[in-house]
Structures are given as C-alpha cells and as structure tokens.
Amino acid sequence: MTVVATRVRYIFGVLSIVLLGVVSLLVVPPPSIQSPSILAFLGRLHPIAVHFPIVLVPTFTVYYLFIRQGKIKEFWSILKIGWLITIGSTVVAVCAGYLLYASGDYGGKLVQLHLQGSVLVAVLLLIGALLVFQSRTPRQINRVLAVLLAANVALVYTGHQGGSLTHGEGFLADALPRASEASLLNKPLNESGIYQDLVRPILEARCMSCHNENKTKGDLNLATYPLMKAGGKSGDSILVAGLPEESELYRRIVLPQTDDEVMPPTGKSRLKQVELDLIEWWISEGADQEMLYGAGPADSMLASQIERYVPNLRGAHIQRIRSRQEFRSLYTAFKEAVTPLGLDVRVDADSDSSLFAVSVQFPSSMQVNDNTIGALRPYASYISSLSLVGTEISDDAFFHIAAMENLQELYVPNTAVDGSGMVYLKELAQLELLNLSNTELANPYVFHIAALPHLSTLYIFNTEVEPSIEEALATYRADVDVRHEEGPFNIR
C-alpha cells in the first residue's frame, strides 16, 4: 500500500469518527454546565467560530462551480487545505454552540432547531470531504457540488434559526412582503378564520409572552395550533372539541382572579368578556383550526358583540406587528451604538422579548469605564440586565445605571466600586439581583442596598463588609438572600 493510500485511509477514518461524534450531539442530552467554568468559556466562543463556515461554505461552493465549468484548474493541495479548514471551523462552531446550549444561557425550540441545522451542515460537509478523498473524476465533482449546495441551504436555515434567537422569531420572514394593513382591517368577517384571525391574536396579546418557543411555562407552547393542542407538562390537550368547560384553555381563563391557577396570572391583564365568549363559542363549535366565521354565533347578541369588537382586535394585532418591527429597528440602532464601545447587546427573552441584556464583549480591546456607561443613557429604559464584570468602572457609573428603570440584574464583580455611588440605585424599583463580589464594598455604604425594594439576591464574596453589618442588614432586610460566593458573572 502506498503512502498516499495510507494517508487517505487515515483521513477517512478520522472523518468518519468526527461524523459519528457530530451526529451524537443530536441524541446525547446536553450536560448541565455552570458558569464560570472552562466549558462555559468555550461555549462563548460560538459566535466567533460560527463566522468561519458562514464565509467558507459559500466560497467553496463558488470555487467548485468554476472548476465544473472549466474556468479554473483544480488545485488539489488548495482543496485539501480548504476542506480541512471548513470542516474544522464547522465542527468547532457546532461543539461550542452545544456547550453554550448546555450552559443554560439559551433554551427552547429555536435552540434545538438551530442545533439540528448546524449538525446537518457539519454532516453534509463531512460527507463532501469523504467524496473528495475518494477520487477526482467529473462525476465526483458533480456529487461534491451537490453536497455543497445542500450545505448552503442548510446553512441559511441554521442562520435563520440562530438569528431568530437573537433578533426574535421570524426576523427574516417579517421582512418579506405581506398583506397590507388596510386589507387586514377590511377583510370581511364572514371570511375570517376563527382561530387564525380572531382567537390567535387574543392568545398572542394575553398569553404568548409566557407560552412561546423560548419561554414555555408549564411546558405549554401556544405559538402554533398543533403545539397548543399538545398541551403542557400534564400531557393532556388543553382543547376538548365541543366542551369548553372541560378544556383547560377555557377553564383557566374564567377562574376567579384569586385562584392560584387563573390565567393570565395576577398582575397581568385579564381577557375581556367578549374574548372569553368568543373562545367559548369557538371551542363549542369544534375548536377547528380552519373553521371560518361564516354566519357567526346563533346568539345574535354575542354575534353583534363580536362584530363590534373585531375592528379593535385587528387594530391591536396590527399595532403589535408594528411594535415588533419598531423593536427590531431599536435593537439594530442599539447594537450599532454600543458595539464600538466594547459592549454587546441581545434581546432578553426572559423579559417577554421587550428589553435588552447588555454585557462586556469578549474578546474586546476596548476599555469599558464610567463614560461608556454614560453613553447608554439614550437606551437606559430598555435595559433589563447589565454585566460589567472586570471593567474599569467606578461608583460614578451608578449615576448612569440609576436611569435604567427596568433593570432587574446588575453584575459589577471584580471592579473598583466601593458602594459610595449606590445611593443612586434607590430609584431601581425592579432590581432583583446585585453581584458585588470581589469589590471594595465598604461598611458605610451597605445600607444603601436596603433601599432597593425588590432586591432578592445579593453577592458580597471577598468584600470588606463586616459580620456585624451583615447581621444588621439581615435583620432589616430578611427577604434578601445574602450569599458569600462569587455568583454568576454572566447575564441570564
């Protein structure tokens, strides 16, 4: 056996093992990775590594198209290096994404679809490499090209799912032409789908903030009709055709406000009576996804109520579409503003996707300081989580942070703050978590913390706070969980 043949067999073996390893990611449950840790760190490399295959796969495809057309020669050495770089970067990106998934920073159906798509891209590229190392006949080039074209399709699909995680579900689809607002408002009621045009907008407005692809309380996802019918963690459908009183969907929304099982929960807007009546009638008529409104309910009073209500319902639905588009525009402007400052921003899925989580870029050559935080003031009310770990901020930064009225989590460990600026934070009525570990937090300023009305978790590991002061704080604010550990450094 020649040396070349031996090397080809060796490469075949390695590629086959890598192929099996990549496919196994689909069936092996991700481990629970706590941050900070080296695995969590490697997971954070995913956004960096993923850009290599995004560029290399289309480039390689164009290269093969030129080879097939005979416009350039086939350079075997370039092909080998190119395939190794493309496959290597793809596998690294997939594995890093898997670790990021395991760290708990992301979850839900979109993450699973993104993982499946990325594995498919890697599998196709590995198959293409196996074909390349077999022979270099024109027929084999055609096969490799077909595999590369399929990999490009899979790459677009995977990128769409990844983009939806960051920008919100359907961020590509929302840019496509759709029915005009006027046609939606003027659609005849008798031609309207009861579920699609009437019931779904109600669920979207009242329920989907907690029961969507990324946030499925009780394992219930109302994003699509089949998922809604599948029900939640109980495994029972929440729709019983013809029986509203036995349908969990209807039973929950008509419970008294004082009931622990009422939906939406206490503190959120309840459904209007006409909305309750509409859902009850739809379920009574069979709760079918394709059912048209037609002549409407036999009850003329209910029919007239729905007829008066529909324009408002459609108008509110249109407003939500506008709001989503405006939010995405805001996200783009926010990201463009903070990226040059050494900060990163993403949509905070835990805030009903209406706020942003801001953190320090990694890696970054920019020094984040008090002036950097001051530059965030135009977007202050849209920030729910802020992570400034290891930055050069001082207590002066708290003056700017105090403008973030919707801030729920603040991480400032490993900074030079001593707490003197925390007097400004008393305005943060929503702040729940504060991490001051490894700072110069001093005794005189600890009781500024007591002024935070909703604070529930405080990290003060390796600070100068004396036990007597901590005991006094515990007496005054027994509802605050004071922890002597470094705590999380990353935003949720």
Topology:
Blueprint: H1 3-24, H2 38-43, H3 46-49, H4 51-68, H5 76-102, H6 109-132, H7 138-167, H8 181-185, H9 194-206, H10 225-230, H11 248-253, H12 273-284, H13 300-338, E1 343-348, E2 355-360, H14 370-374, E3 383-387, H15 397-401, E4 409-411, E5 433-435, E6 457-459, H16 467-476, E7 481-483
Parallel strand pairs: 2-3, 3-4, 4-5, 5-6, 6-7
Antiparallel strand pairs: 1-2
Helix pairs in contact: 1-6, 4-5, 4-7, 5-6, 6-7, 9-12, 9-13, 12-13
Would you give an account of this structure?
- With 492 residues, the chain is mainly alpha-helical.
- The protein has three domains: 3-174; 181-321, no CATH class; 342-483, Ribonuclease Inhibitor (Leucine-rich repeat, LRR (right-handed beta-alpha superhelix), Alpha-Beta Horseshoe).
- Helix content is 47%, strand content 6%.
- The protein is built from 16 helices and seven strands.
- A seven-stranded mixed sheet has the order 1-2-3-4-5-6-7.
- Helix 16 links the parallel strand 6 and strand 7.
- The radius of gyration is 28 Å and the shape is flat.
- The relative contact order is 0.06.
- The model is unreliable at 175-180 (pLDDT under 50).
In a nutshell, what does this entry contain?
The chain folds into 3 domains: 3-174; 181-321, no CATH class; 342-483, Leucine-rich repeat, LRR (right-handed beta-alpha superhelix) (Alpha-Beta Horseshoe). Helix content is 47%, strand content 6%.
